[in-house]
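One-letter codes give the sequence; the integers encode the fold. A sample entry reads:
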Amino acid sequence: MGESLILRKSLDFGIRIVRLYKHLRENKREFVLSKQLLRSGTSIGANLREAKYAQSKGDFISKNSIALKEAAETEYWLELDFCKITIQTAEWRFCKIKNPWNSGKNDFCKVTIGGSIVTLQNFS
């Protein structure tokens, strides 16, 4: 069976976050907030991958809940004015961060992870 869409997107997003982190450190000399962005942005995929091998339904829900929280934190760091001021449009394209989580008006990451959590909790 192939890998799920959410796992593939979270890996792609993690790679983009690493590129952005390296860019901020090397070219903008930004060390503190970029580290927070790196931690939360790569944690999404790590927790989703862990959930794939959960030992129980509760463990699965917990890992997905953590991934959802990390996605919200990452969104916060990306929305901060330091990003809008520090990162130019061309740099966003270089890092390919053009918000890959958004799918139309819905936030793909939050909708998918959140929906999974609610579904599992309702069937408990």
